[in-house]
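Hey, I'm writing a tutorial for new members on how sequence and structure tokens pair up, and I'd like a real worked example in the thread rather than a made-up one. If someone can provide the structure for the chain below, I'll link this post from the tutorial.
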Amino acid sequence: MDYELLQRYIEGRVTAKEAEQVVDWLDADEAHVKEFMALHKAFDISVMNQSAAQTLRKRAKQIKLRSIGVELVKIAAVILLVLGIQYGWEFRQSEQDTEERPLYQTLYVPAGQRAELMLPDSTKVWLNAHSKLVYPLSFQKDTRSVELSGEAYFEVRRNEKVPFVVKTSKVDVKVLGTEFNVSAYEEEADFEVALLKGSVLLESSRLREPHSMKPGEMVYFKDGQYYSGLIQNPDYFKWKEGLICFLDEPIYKIMEKLSLYFDVEIQHQNQAFLKERYTGKFRSKDGVEQVLKVLQMEHHFRYVKDNEQNVITIK
């Protein structure tokens, strides 16, 4: 791979054809992703210092990816795309006020994968499959804010003077320092926030007033209403370890999760089967068909997969 092309890709200065070339290279081998992340990490650091950034651009052709320490994050074939041309990393910067506005970048995790990263304030984030996080290269003094579409688990670095805000299309989640899980896929009507440690404040035009959550509580949005209850399945959050865990879940709910996580349409001809329930754990890296084969051992159904249409039909 041309290192100069990779550098321009990171800076958002590529054509759609060039971006597709980089994406194909990334998707071909997980080692390519790790090499790319190492180069991107070097760029992130240099952006914070303009003189360093200029030096990095001048020497882009000489950079050897193998000489850069691989970033210690767990990433499984994460596709990095440049937004604006329907691809990857996005850097939004005004030429007139670069010092006032932070640089933003977007991390997208494709179906069947997950990613872990550390934000500029040392907050840890795990992104689930088919999720997107927009975050700044450096937080401003009076705000720590990110945008989420999809599902993420946060371990927020405590800072009582500057709250941490996760903005979604449905609710803003405001915290000081805590551990919580947010599921807010834009294509799904449902929304969930589960608080494991600390405290969380939910703010939304759909709520009559802000709601303060307590540890062990889950708030979810369903059928146009918000509900609150206790976390029933702590193992669910092991998705950040690559496990998909179900506890006495209806089959139709499991199919919805599989469709979302693996970006495949699942059609049902066996309606009685959907009402049955299942408890079990799966490795996400094994893929959707492995889950279906295990389910077949306890439930009577057949399935047909149309690879061209990306559709699985349950019979």
